TrEMBL record:
Protein name, UniProt field: V-type proton ATPase subunit H
ATPase V1 complex subunit H C-terminal domain mapped to chain residues: 332-447
GO (cellular component) term, any one: vacuolar proton-transporting V-type ATPase, V1 domain
Pfam family, one: V-ATPase_H_N
GO molecular function: proton-transporting ATPase activity, rotational mechanism
Subunit field text: V-ATPase is a heteromultimeric enzyme made up of two complexes: the ATP-hydrolytic V1 complex and the proton translocation V0 complex.
Family from the record: Belongs to the V-ATPase H subunit family.
Lineage: Eukaryota, Metazoa, Ecdysozoa, Arthropoda, Hexapoda
Alphabetic keyword roster: Hydrogen ion transport, Ion transport, Transport
Job description of the protein: Subunit of the V1 complex of vacuolar(H+)-ATPase (V-ATPase), a multisubunit enzyme composed of a peripheral complex (V1) that hydrolyzes ATP and a membrane integral complex (V0) that translocates protons. V-ATPase is responsible for acidifying and maintaining the pH of intracellular compartments and in some cell types, is targeted to the plasma membrane, where it is responsible for acidifying the extracellular environment. Subunit H is essential for V-ATPase activity, but not for the assembly of the complex.
CDD domains: VATPase_H
Length: 475
């Protein structure tokens, strides 16, 4: 585990250098220069003499010396002032003081945690309440402090507070034009290093949110931070196994193909490597390899092999992934290929769909795992807006019905027939055509019988009532 921490810390150091240029850090630099007149607070009796003596000592050159013997008082004064002072500029200054205090020495988080423990209070309440303020700097500097207390202390954040905070971070990510989005990403990068926090993040639907944002166009720095979050999550074997259910591989493969920044390339390759190395179920690793192959990752790897990188990790990951993906291609069965394509949700006219041999041999396999693949196809008919996906899904359902004797009954039970029929009115002519073919197949009870009847009918005189009745009787 130490090795993982070393890897993450190595990248963390580089991130901190970048964070110094973020909006939050630039504003913090300005706030440090705007000294607060603590004496005016004392004279107007807005703060006690005890708090005045403590805050002036903490705001001076001998802060470290004061903290050696006065940790309890320091925490008491900071929390008291944050609770009782209303002026935004003073709250901003206090938060910068606390953040600087923690950044200089991570063990100082225990000053606040010990104080709360001794008083049998929660340290989280005073900070979480500040997240309700309207000032952007105040809420995001508070968030940064909460992340440090949660990650650097010996005591983990209680479940209810944790879920509230992670939900808040997730909501901040989805705000349009949030100028503090890098700060939000940084907090998540810290929080998701803690394994227990990872599962809580999944509980608030965090992975879906990351993927949704990554599938839109965001700047490369945010891209890097959010992929970093996915990378840290994949160090947990269980999460690594579940990750591609959120379509992580197709989205990251798209970013990789468009990516011009070396650090984004590096972190995507690191995610891909973890998705192969970390799952304990070998079948899942195999499925991840196939998904990467189908998303044209091998092509990107061959391009990357031609480039020179300063970072040895990139070269190592390119070699590892190339070997694993090439091996998976050699072992790939047509059903593996089909299954992975369906699970990706990115259907296209790959050869297996139009192969009669494939359907004869594999139609029944769509019943496996409680009709998993059929359910996905039907879900795509219901939710996809892509005409290509709808066309291929309709065709596959028709072929399943044609080659599996009870297929019509199964599709009706899964509500597939109704969805296919709705597509008869689709605006795209290709979708209408494939839906019509599928409906025709759904209406026929016995394909072998129909074939023989068609042969007989070709010998009958057009308009023969018996022939017409035979076919319509079976339709």
């Amino acid at each position: 585990m130490a090795n993982i921490d070393d890897m993450i810390s190595h990248l963390d150091d580089k991130i901190d250098m970048i964070a110094a240029t973020s909006v939050l850090q630039q504003q913090a630099s300005d706030i440090r220069t705007q000294k607060i007149n603590w004496q005016s607070y004392q004279q107007s009796q807005m703060i006690s003499n005890e708090d005045f003596n403590a805050i002036t000592a903490l705001d001076g050159d001998k802060k470290s010396h004061y903290l050696k013997d006065n940790q309890y008082q320091a925490a008491k004064t900071f929390l008291s002032l944050l609770s009782h002072v209303s002026k935004d500029t003073t709250i901003q200054y206090l938060l910068v003081m606390i953040d600087d205090l923690l950044s200089e020495d991570r063990t100082r988080v225990e000053i606040f945690l010990d104080y709360a423990s001794k008083r049998k209070e929660t340290v989280w309440g005073p900070f979480l309440s500040l997240l309700n303020r309207s000032d952007g700097f105040i809420i995001h500097m508070t968030s940064r402090i909460i992340a440090k207390l949660a990650c650097w202390g010996q005591d983990q954040m209680p479940k209810s507070d944790l879920n509230f905070y992670l939900q808040w971070l997730k909501d901040q990510l989805t705000l349009s034009d949030n100028e503090y989005i890098q700060s939000v990403g940084r907090c998540l990068q810290m929080m998701l290093r803690v394994d227990e926090y990872r599962f809580a993040f999944v509980t608030v639907d965090g992975i879906s949110t990351l993927i949704s944002i990554l599938s839109s166009r965001v700047n490369f720095q945010v891209q890097y931070q959010l992929v970093f979050c996915l990378w840290v999550l994949t160090f947990n074997p269980l999460l690594a196994e579940k990750m591609n259910k959120f379509n992580v591989i197709p989205i990251l493969a798209d970013i990789l193909s468009d990516c011009a920044k070396e650090k984004v390339t590096r972190i995507i390759l690191a995610v891909f490597r973890n998705l192969i190395e970390k799952p304990e179920d070998a079948q899942v690793s195999k499925e991840h390899c196939i998904a990467m192959v189908q998303c044209k990752v091998l092509k990107q790897l061959s391009i990357l092999e031609q480039r020179r990188f300063d970072d040895e990790d990139i070269t190592s990951d390119v070699e590892f992934l190339t070997e694993k993906l090439q091996t998976s291609v050699q072992d790939l069965s047509s059903f593996d290929e089909y299954s992975t394509e369906i699970k990706s949700g990115r259907l296209e006219w790959s050869p297996v769909h139009k192969s009669a041999k494939f359907w004869r041999e594999n139609a029944q396999r769509l019943n496996e795992k409680n009709y998993e693949l059929l359910r996905i196809l039907i879900h795509l008919l219901d939710t996809s807006r892509d005409p290509l996906v709808l066309s291929v899904a309709s065709y596959d359902i028709g072929e399943y019905v044609r080659h599996f004797p009870r297929g019509k009954h199964v599709i009706e039970q899964l509500n597939g027939k109704q969805l296919v029929m709705q597509l008869l009115g689709h605006e795209d002519p290709n979708v209408r055509y494939e839906a019509l073919l599928a409906v025709q197949k759904l209406m026929v009870h016995n394909w072998e019988y129909l074939g023989k009847q068609l042969e007989k009918d070709s010998e009958k005189v057009p308009g023969d009532k018996d022939g017409a009745k035979t076919i319509s009787g079976k339709a």
